[in-house]
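Discrete fold record:
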Amino acid sequence: MVRNAQNPRPSPNPPAPRSRSVSAGESSRWQRWPWQLLFTGLMFGFMYIPILVLGVYSFNESRFTANWTGFTLEWYRRLFNDARILSALGTSLVVACLAVAIAAVIGTLMAVGLARYRFPGKGIYLGVTYLPLIVPDITIAVSTLVFLAVISLPLSLGTIISAHIVFCLAYIGIIISTRLTSLDPHLEEAAQDLGATPLQSFLRVLLPQLTPAIVSGCLLAFVLSMDDFLIASFTAGGGAVTLPMEIFSRIRTGVKPDINALSVLLILASGVIAFVAESIRFRSEQRGG
């Protein structure tokens, strides 16, 4: 009894010393932190410093971009009085609005059909539908031009809209499909069990839940359509000039301050639309989750 009191039995599971390993891990993490911060800063600087320089020089009084001579708003005033720019902007808005509207209807029906029904060749059709997301724009532009030449369809504003529907359809469809995966399909079945027709269950049950995704996809497709140059330039006919085509025709001899001002306005508008689209998509996913 005395020996047991003087030499108590050790615990069968003694705690292992961890202070050294924890401190070593924290030290390694803090050693990596400056390199991660440096890499992140270089990455964001490479992407956004040119945009910042563009914004600053859009207020440059000089007609030459490289020389700063003073602050002015003259180039923005001239921009809003430029008839060619306003005409090209109107053409781009018409193309984007019509292409997005048509693609929204077809893309919604396509996404619902692919998610709710089974049919032969569904996998192949699904891959072909989303092919414009990975195929380079120049390939789509050339293939569309060749197809229009084969069927002897003259180039016009309508051919630009038709070509834009193709890639707008892919973007809208994939965003709606992502939303459909988080929805409960039994809600439509319950509505039909209560006497609703398939069309009524689609319009009153499924469509309200898909509305945020449809709006988000349409806003994203609208920005991409406004930004497109290659496909529009290959499929445009005489007199159909979009805004990117007009900008390209002016910068062949050098970048002018009015183009800088126009670029700043386009960046701001695209950023606002993209932010709204992402906010709508995120909120709809949060409610669905």
In short: The domain at 77-288 is CATH 1.10.3720.10 (MetI-like fold). The longest helix spans residues 19-57. Residues 58 and 260 are 5 Å apart (CA to CA). The radius of gyration is 29 Å.
